[in-house]
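Z., the sequence and structure:
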Amino acid sequence: MSFTTAWALKLLNVYLAFRYRASFHSVNVDVSAVQGKVVSDQSVLFIANHSSWWDGFFVFEVFKKLKLKKEFKIVMLESELKKFPFFRLCGAVGLIPKNLQHNEKIFKELKNYCVCFFPQGHLTPQNERPLIFRAGINDLIRELHPVQIIVIGVHIEPLHFMKPTALIKASYFAASDGDIVDRAALAVATEKNLDQISHEWTKQIFLTRAKP
């Protein structure tokens, strides 16, 4: 990691600590289903649903909690990255829609990193089902192969506080045994995490709150 990136990430962590306190009651990250399963000699791919501006930061929290010994990269649209050039210093890379040559080059450069990617390709409502993952996820997996895939569900719940609560759940999908992975299966695995958050985790929080 370069000196510039290291300092940019320190600044980012300070900023996020402030913004989380200002915007959320709490940010909760569950990586219990992933810990101990990730090996160090392969790339790691984080995929998540995408329904808020915060999602990339939440995936970054998963990465930090797992304490993986690789650099973190997040894939964004180049048009968005130009609006926030600081993120490039933190490891963000930009895709250009329909520019296959540029995008293939970016994907090749992500080998051996921890990569965050949002396969829906755009923001969608949090409760929209089914999740539709675009074909670009297969292009990325092909370039990263062999790669370990971690699916992440991101859910923001109002609960009974003035500020919403962020609930982020990660699970280990698989290590790719070929250069193609069924993207529909990835979407279903992500939906499963979201359902566990909205049906089980939120209920547990309400029940805990209701105890005398």
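Strands lie at 26-33, 43-48, 72-77, 92-95, 114-117, 147-157, 165-175. The chain is about 40% helix and 25% strand.

Let me know what you think.
H.
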